[in-house]
Amino acid sequence: MSARLEDLRDCFQGVIPSIIATSSAAGEPNVTYLSEVYYVDSKHVALSCQFFNKTQRNVAENPYADVTLMDPVTFEAWRLVLKFDHFETSGPLFDNMAMRIQTIASHTGMSGVFRLISSDVYEVLEVVRVDGFLAPLDPVLDSGPKGIEGGGPLTELRGLQIVSERIARATSLDALLSGTLLTLDELFGFSHSMVLVPECDTGVLVTLASRGFDEASRGAREGERGIGARVAVGQGVIGMAASTRRMTRVTSMSADLRYGRAVRGRIAESQGRAGLEPEIPLPGLPDVQAQLALPLLAGDELVGVIAFESRDPLSFDEWDEAYLQIVANQIALGMARMESDADERDDEDAPAAPEPARKKTRTFTFYKNDDCVFVDGEYLVRNLPGKILWKLLKQRTGARTEYTNRELRLDPTLELPPIKDNLETRLILLKKRLIEKCPDVRIVPVKRGRFALELDCEAVLVEKDSA
Question: What dotted CATH number matches 156-341?
Answer without folding.
Answer: 3.30.450.40
